Every structure is written in C-alpha cells, then in structure tokens.
C-alpha cells in the first residue's frame, strides 16, 4: 500500500537523519513528530520542538519522559517564526518537519499562518545542511488552510532547481482533502 502523507514524511526523514544531527519539529502538537525525531537522533543529536500552546508542551514532555527521550529534546514555548533566537549563528540543521493547521481535538481557531510559516521556512533554509530535508504536511480543509497551501506551493516553486529538489506528494482521488506533503531537499 502507498504510504499516506504522514507516514511518507517519516520515511523521507529517516533516510537522512543520523544520531549526530540537529533537527526541528516546527509544530509540536501532541508530540508525534517530536518523539519520532528524538528516537532518530538519540543519543548524540538534538531536537528543537516549537509550539505556541502550553498544552502541547505538557503533553509532549510527558510522552518524552515516559519513553526516555527527554534528554535530547528542547521543548520551546514560542512560535517557529522565532527559531533563529534558539539556534547558534551557523548551527547546521539536517531536517525539519511542519504539520500545518490546528491541534486535533483542540481549539480550531489556533492555526499555523502563512506569514509565520514562511518566516520559519526562510530561517530553516539558511540553516539547512546539504542533503538536508524540510517536510511540510499541509492540511487545508479548515478556514485559512487553502491560503497557507497556496503560500507553500508558491514558495516551493520559486526555489531554484540548481540548489533544491522539491517534491509534492498527494493522493488525487481521495475525499475530505487529505493532507499534501512537500519535501524540500537542499542539494
Ligand atoms: N505534529 C503535531 C502532532 O504530532 O500532534 C500536530 C501539529 S498540529 C496540526 C499544529 C500545531 O501547530 C498546533 O499544536 C498549533 O498550536 C501549532 N502552531 C500554530 N502556530 C504555530 C507557530 N507559529 N509556531 C509553532 N507552532 C504553532
């Protein structure tokens, strides 16, 4: 069976992450990607995970502690647009993931936004190492989702082919707007 967007995002991350890498979860939520990244970089790497909602940090911290993965993870209660404040000037980032939209079973008005998502992407591209990858899982069924998807599409299409490979992965015969996956790979 073909992998869905979430599964394939992890496959693409797994291919490049080693246990020495520094990586970013730009939208921590309930911590699924944070846990996956912490497992992938242990014991020598570092995960930076961001969310603007305290409940995301509390839930993710609990799960990390339960699984013995807290040590290599920094949970940051701040927007990903402020990422640069938490990295050193030339800190290499091997991979990052965004799960856009709102936190499932939570306040649907607290969503990721095109402007701040773009700011975070700009910062990440500066820090991304060669062969590094940024994964973006774009949900667009909610109010504001289409605008963000449009921004991501345009942003990715403008990146020069000489420097980046860009993949868009999407099921085109499924109902209910399944998420679309983008992968930005630095050559
Ligand atoms: N990957 C998560 C998981 O495993 O549960 C799901 C993420 S959820 C779709 C999107 C998350 O992005 C929400 O928890 C929301 O609070 C967060 N968010 C919204 N704006 C943000 C921002 N500017 N910076 C960081 N996180 C943000």
UniProtKB/TrEMBL annotation:
Query: What's the superkingdom here?
Result: Bacteria
Matching InterPro entries, A to Z?
A: MnmM_MeTrfase (IPR010719), SAM-dependent_MTases_sf (IPR029063)
Alphabetical list of Gene3D superfamilies matching this protein = Vaccinia Virus protein VP39
Record GO biological process? methylation
**Keyword annotations of the record:** Methyltransferase, Transferase
Name the Pfam families on file.
Answer: rRNA_methylase (PF06962)
Molecular function in Gene Ontology? methyltransferase activity
The protein, known as:
SAM-dependent methyltransferase
Q: Which gene encodes it?
A: smtA_2
């Amino acid at each position: 069976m073909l992998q869905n967007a979430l599964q394939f995002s992890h496959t693409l991350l797994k291919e490049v992450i080693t246990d020495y890498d520094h990586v970013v979860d730009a939208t921590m939520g309930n911590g699924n990607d944070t846990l996956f990244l912490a497992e992938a970089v242990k014991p020598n790497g570092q995960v930076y995970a961001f969310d603007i909602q305290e409940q995301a940090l509390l839930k993710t911290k609990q799960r990390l502690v339960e699984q013995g993965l807290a040590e290599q993870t920094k949970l940051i209660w701040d927007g990903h647009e402020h990422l640069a404040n938490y990295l050193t000037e030339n800190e290499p980032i091997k991979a990052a993931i965004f799960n856009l939209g709102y936190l499932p079973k939570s306040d649907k008005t607290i969503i990721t936004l095109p402007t701040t998502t773009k700011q975070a992407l700009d910062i990440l591209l500066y820090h991304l190492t060669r062969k590094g990858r940024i994964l973006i899982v774009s949900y667009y069924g909610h109010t504001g989702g289409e605008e963000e998807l449009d921004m991501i599409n345009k942003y990715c299409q403008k990146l020069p082919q000489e420097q980046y490979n860009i993949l868009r992965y999407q099921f085109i015969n499924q109902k209910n707007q399944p998420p679309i996956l983008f992968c930005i790979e630095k050559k």
